[in-house]
Amino acid sequence: TSSFVLRPSSSGSRRRFTFSTSTHNLNTYRKPLHRHGATTSLQLSPLSSIITNISGKISPQIRNSILIGSAAALLFKNRSKFYPPNLPRPDPAFTEPLPDGSLGCPYLGNIGFFTNMGNAKTGSGEFYRYQASLADGGNPQLFKYAPLGTPSVVITGMANVKKVFNQEFKLINAGILSDKMVESLGGESLVFVTDQERHQFLRRLVGQSMTPEQIDKAMPALMESATRMINTLKEGEDVEMERVVTAFTLDVAWRQILGLNLKDDETETFNNAVNDWIIGCFNPLWLFLPGKRFSKSGKAFKYLVSKIEDRLDEFERNGPDGSTLSGMYFAKDEEDPSKRLSKKDIISNSLLLIFAGSETAASTLTVATLALGLHKDVFNKLKNEQLAMMAKHEGKVMTREMLEKDCPYLDVVVKEVMRIKPLAITGENRFAQETFVVDGKQVPKGYGVTFCPGVTHLLDPSLREEDNSHMDIVKGFKPERWLDDKTKPTDYIPFGVGPRYCLGVNLALAEMKVFLALFARRVDFDLTNTTSDDVEWKNFSIIPKPKDGALVSVSSLSDANV
Ligand code: HEM
């Protein structure tokens, strides 16, 4: 079986760690990564994984040039789809000015989008914070920039984001950069659907698999996944929590989302397949070149689809179970019960749930571990809340209702983690369907449009500090602020806004809360590398992550039934 224990591989005050697993034969789409029983790593950070995987033996400079060059070529090839020739000029029919900010070099756009992604002190999203600071007179809530030469506007501030993103499909719509990317997610993933009616239909039916009632049914599987991961921890040993919680969210993916029954050795194959498949979804080389289905990513996709197809056959024979996939398979449209999801819809959208749900929840849990390690008082309160809940419901299994009614502190801890370290920017690029005005500025037709939770939380007028310390995980992490209406944040959009609001929010919150509740009950830990004076973040990551993946040493671990 795999172990998530990290062993020191060199001495020194900042030790380096490797991830060790045992070697075993996998009768599946690919052999384990490790050679001669050596170490390997389980990674699910698409951007960094692409870079690591492509790198091979070539130098980082050549590698980066190939990556950025092919991404630029891809965008250039497709630009006629969304880049009318009169851009980036303002729309002459409007008197309002364009938003502040720089579009960078012609064609190339803002190089800083790549070189200034993150900052070791403040984490990812640095480029957006920088753009937001360019205007005279402080941070504007709207600013323009040009990733890969595409003029775009970033919209922040609760009122502005609501105004624009509630009018999805009218003012703005998703733009498909590459048909191959659509195919990579199965062809019918709702995230790429630009027709409003079809999008609503898919959301209604896929959403039926993640209603509160479905989450009730999911609780045993979520607890099993969390318990399994917490059981891999060992007293006195150092562990990189990012790996544990990444494995946890992948465990949720096969156990709960797909309802598979994998043996230990197949778990590793599944995890590798998800990893390889996601890398291929983003890899500009594969998006550009033919023959993707013969690539590692193409084979991984085939493997995942075959697993889903087997499950669909089982539903046909045996009827429904508590999995999310089963919820989708049996979902009927309330508006017209004769309408069901097609097989392709189910495959594409179950893959989407894995894609959209794994790294997001894993990185939030990693940041949560860091925050709890830095704020032991918060961790103790979390523990006490769990002890009180266990005393109240002695002998009973945790339910969603218990989490909701008896864990208000757990709720605000999760909220505060996502306030301080939300996704740097939305997942999907939209394009303005017509010229519109927001916050006194015009956004011309054809411009790219995104919202930015990071800058929205930073500029929240209800709690903004001059020195931005409200966004600092040491000085600003205060879950209590959510408990009082006078201090409660007002501009808070970690799950987005409008018709494309996170469809997995119920499952995401349940899985994160189950993990943290069981972790707080059973584990005592200290951060190994990090103190309040030297918190460091990964530089090149769209999703915020501590630089060392939240390295902890486990000081005590109690039994699962405690
Ligand atoms: C902490 C965890 C998560 C965060 C912070 C998060 C955040 C978001 C955000 C901001 C969006 C909106 C993107 C946009 O408007 O472009 C989104 C969309 C989405 N999320 Fe999540 N998400 C999380 C977990 C999950 C999970 C666990 C699932 C499923 C199992 C999921 C499924 C989806 C789907 C399907 C969409 C697309 C909705 C659509 O296009 O209509 N997410 N998420």
Automatic annotation (TrEMBL):
Source organism, top-level taxon: Eukaryota
Alphabetically ordered keywords of this record: Heme, Iron, Metal-binding, Monooxygenase, Oxidoreductase, Signal
Keyword Metal-binding included in the entry's annotation: yes
Molecular functions (GO terms): metal ion binding; monooxygenase activity
Cofactor(s) the record lists: heme
Any matching Pfam family: p450
Residues at which heme binds: C502
Record PANTHER family: CYTOCHROME P450 26, P450, PUTATIVE (EUROFUNG)-RELATED
Family, as annotated: Belongs to the cytochrome P450 family.
Official protein name in the record: Cytochrome P450
